[in-house]
Structure formats: C-alpha cells, structure tokens
Design a protein that fits this description.
9 helices, five-stranded antiparallel β-sheet, BirA Bifunctional Protein, domain 2, 5 strands, alpha+beta
Length: 314
C-alpha cells in the first residue's frame, strides 16, 4: 500500500530560532559527517540535475552578500528565506534498489526487474514535474539511497534580480500569504486567513504532484490516517489506484506504438512516392527513345507504376 510523499521547506542563511539553515540542510544532503549522524552508513548522493548543493550554496552566498531587501533600500535581513529545499520519496527500500541495479549490471544491462523499472519511471516523472514546476530556479537534485527508503532532495533558488533576492514564485504557500497584502487589511485578516490561504496553496501543490506522478505510479494522494479510512477501504482504493496506473501505462504504450506506426507509414509513403517518380521517369525515357524492341519491359514498368498508384491512393 503506497501513497505519495512530496514536501518542501524554506531556509535562510541564519536562523533566529533552532530551525536549520541553508548551510545545514545542504551539509546534510552531501553527507558532511557532522550533519549525517542519523545515517548508519552515509553514502555520497547521486547528482540527478544541475549542480551539487554545495556549489549552489556558494552562489547563494555571493548573491546574499550584495542583495537588498524588498524595498531595495536596506541590506537583506540575515533571516530572509533564500533557499527552497524539498524531498520526494517512493515506497521502495534502498537495498532493494541496489540489488536490482546490481542484477541489471550482471545481465549486461538487458534485464530490468520490476523494482528497477518502477524506480526509473518514478525518477523520470518526478524530474519532469520538478522542471515544469520550478523552471530555471530548479538548481540541484540529488538522490539518497543510504536510508531505508529511496528519496531525492531538490533545491531551488531565484537569481539576484534588481538587487533583491527572495523566493517569489517558488514558495507557493508564501506567495499565497503575501497575496493578502502587507497593509492593515492583511493584519486585520489575522492568522486564520493566512493559514487558510497557505493550506489551499499546499493542497494545490500536492494535487499537482499527484496528477503528474502519483496517479501514474498508482499511489494514493493521502494515507488512510489522514482521511480516517478503514484498512479495508484503504486497500480497495489502493487497488483502484494501481489499476488506474496500469491503464495509464497501457494507454501510453498504445499511443507510442501508434505514433511509431504513423512514422513508418509516412516513411513508406515517402519512399513509394519517390519510387513512383523514378519508375515514371524510366518509362518516359524508354518511350522517348523509341525503344520498342522490348515491349514486355515497358509493360512491366507500367504495371509497377499502377500498383504503386493504387497503394498510394492516387
């Protein structure tokens, strides 16, 4: 029984509370010993997109050093949120993935297990969704396979624009909250209104992931506890989700086969048209030179032309 997991947080270079900082989460991502004590046998992450997180951190540090606040008049506050970091996991144990990949290599990269096939599908779908969601602001994606479940971390940051640096357009919850404004109206709205718009934005975020990845993988958007479902109902819904994912995959395969067939037909039609032109030119030359000694050859060429015309529908 599987359900999706996609989550993000935002970070500053410095924190006035005990929250992690941009440096801290990136040190954990790259398995710096002081930040990976929770991992029994740390392994270096595998880079899937962009640059390594530590390289991104250096770029952000350079931008922060010269950035201004939203007014453009003051230096960027030390606790300004400048990094968005997210995690996406799949219900596959890391050891199972490692074993599946080892078996794939032993087979000469000819035989893929179901576990490896599902992992590759998840990675492809997730990276596509991340790129569509964050665009050029998606700066780094790394894979971790040294904890119980396979998961990837992604890091987003805006470029320095007009001397300012923020997470506008990336942090959907923050964008929603800022949409209330900064004046008296927003203050009067109170915490309830802010919580409401943030929750709605995060729900839309989860729905986006579900449409792009979860459905195709056969995962439910929410687990049974969140929705107060009985185990029987949860199992039934999971079965439906898996059947839907299978149907979607079959439809994708059928579409790909149809497109391939169309390409073959187009290529064949182009070849036939070219061949028809060659035969017609040959027949014209034969008749023009007055070579009547072998009429059976002219008849054979003419028959080929007629056959091709019928096949091409002309």
């Amino acid at each position: 029984m599987a359900y999706q997991f996609a989550h993000y947080e935002t970070y500053a270079m410095h924190s006035r509370t005990n929250r992690s900082t941009a440096r801290g989460v990136i040190a954990e991502a790259e398995r710096v010993p002081t930040h990976s004590k929770h991992v029994t046998q740390p392994k270096a992450p595998k880079l899937l997109h962009g640059c390594m997180p530590s390289e991104l951190l250096r770029e952000i540090e350079c931008d922060v050093a010269i950035a201004k606040d939203r007014t453009g008049k003051k230096k960027l506050p030390k606790d300004a949120q400048i990094l968005l970091a997210g995690v996406v996991s799949m219900p596959l144990e890391s050891q199972e993935l490692l074993d599946a990949h080892a078996a794939y290599v032993r087979s000469g990269k000819k035989e893929r297990s179901e576990a490896l096939r599902q992992y590759q599908k998840w990675q492809k779908l997730t990276l596509a969704w991340l790129k569509q969601t964050y665009g050029d602001a998606l700066r780094s994606v790394v894979l971790h396979y040294d904890e119980k479940q396979v998961h990837l971390h992604y890091y987003c940051a805006n470029r320095l624009t007009g001397g300012t640096l923020n997470l506008d357009g990336l942090d959907v919850a923050g964008d929603a909250e800022r949409s209330l404004g900064l004046g008296r109206k927003a203050r009067n709205a109170g915490g309830a209104a802010r919580k409401k718009v943030r929750a709605e934005a995060l729900t839309a975020f989860q729905e986006s992931f579900n449409q792009a990845v979860g459905l195709a993988m056969g995962w439910a958007r929410l687990g049974p506890r969140k929705r107060r479902m009985s185990r029987a109902d949860w199992k039934q819904e999971q079965l439906v989700a898996e059947k839907l994912a299978s149907a979607m995959e079959q439809a994708t395969q059928a579409r790909d086969q149809l497109e391939a067939s169309r390409e073959i037909n187009n290529d064949l039609r182009q070849w036939s048209g070219s061949k028809l032109a060659e035969l017609q030119a040959a027949l014209d030359r034969f008749l023009a030179t007055g070579e009547r000694a072998a009429p059976e050859e002219a008849q054979a060429v003419s028959a080929q032309i007629s056959t091709l015309r019928r096949k091409l529908g002309i």
